[in-house]
Write a structure and sequence with these properties.
This protein is an alpha/beta fold. The chain has one domain: TIM Barrel (Alpha-Beta Barrel). About 45% of the residues lie in helices and about 15% in strands. The protein is built from twelve helices and eight strands. The longest helix has 22 residues. The protein starts with a helix and ends in a 13-residue tail after the last helix.
Length: about 260
């Protein structure tokens, strides 16, 4: 078992909600200081954000204990390198792996080869458009499957009784505190939202780190409360050993050797 991988996996799981740095008008430093004030341990920094190529390596040095996931990945070096002419912030899996990021997220699927290449040291969170695609990627080693918040039917199908609850569902898109109960009841394990939604209604020029921390605390507490209604066994697990904690998870995972047996 990779102890660092398990630590990042558990941090994300226990945080329950992951803030996403998207392309918006908010100041990066203010957002980062807000995350620190709120005690956030896992963030997703997307390659949609124009400053990603500079911020991601700097963030890795500044906040080494943070679980740093990179989003908006394209699972093709050829396409990534060509599109970098238009979007200079784009980076390949290998380039980001060398920096030491902790996870990869995409609104697209990953190939089995990519998942198997990185899953032993990075949290892999591809998107699936069908339950079968979710099964393939989990079987290859994906740790979570990203599903859109608006796609209730797919979420229900991935969580339906005939699938035996195999799928670790990571929901993004339209996730607000008001929708948390519905989303977790339909099978979500972790949720995430971009700062454009988290900070909706706040003037970027007036934003302070304290405002960011206040909104993040609201979202994280709402996520934890909503999940505890559905999966009370996952609340207050900080004192459990890793083995005992893994045994409580309701879905398939590959973080213990016996998971492959």
């Amino acid at each position: 078992m990779n102890n660092h991988l398990l630590k990042c996996y558990r941090m994300a799981y226990e945080q329950c909600f992951v803030p996403i740095f998207v392309h918006d008008d908010f100041d990066t430093e203010t957002l980062l200081r807000g995350c620190e004030l709120a005690g956030v341990q896992v963030v997703e920094y997307t390659l949609r954000r124009p400053d990603a190529a500079e911020v991601i390596p700097a963030l890795r040095r500044r906040w080494p204990e943070c679980g740093l996931f990179v989003g908006s990945m394209l699972d093709s070096d050829k396409i990534t390198i060509q599109m970098r002419k238009k979007y200079p912030q784009l980076m390949t899996f290998a380039e980001l792996d060398e920096i030491g990021v902790d996870g990869f997220v995409s609104m697209l699927s990953f190939t089995n080869e990519t998942i198997r290449t990185y899953a032993e040291r990075c949290i892999m969170i591809p998107t699936a458009s069908t339950p079968g695609e979710a099964l393939r990627q989990v079987d290859a080693g994906a740790h979570f499957i990203k599903l859109k918040g608006s796609d209730r039917e797919l979420r229900k199908n991935c969580h339906a009784a005939p699938t035996h609850g195999f799928c670790p569902i990571f929901v993004t898109g339209g996730v607000t505190p008001e929708r948390m109960s519905e989303i977790y009841a339909e099978g979500a394990i972790i949720t995430a939202s971009g700062f454009d939604l988290i900070l909706k209604g706040i003037d970027p020029q007036a934003l302070t780190a304290e405002m960011v921390a206040e909104r993040l605390t609201l979202y994280i507490n709402a996520a934890k409360a909503a999940r505890a209604e559905v999966l009370p066994q996952l609340a207050d697990t900080q004192n459990l050993t890793d083995d005992a904690w893994l045994d409580l998870l309701p879905h398939y995972h590959s973080l213990k050797e016996e998971a492959y047996v």
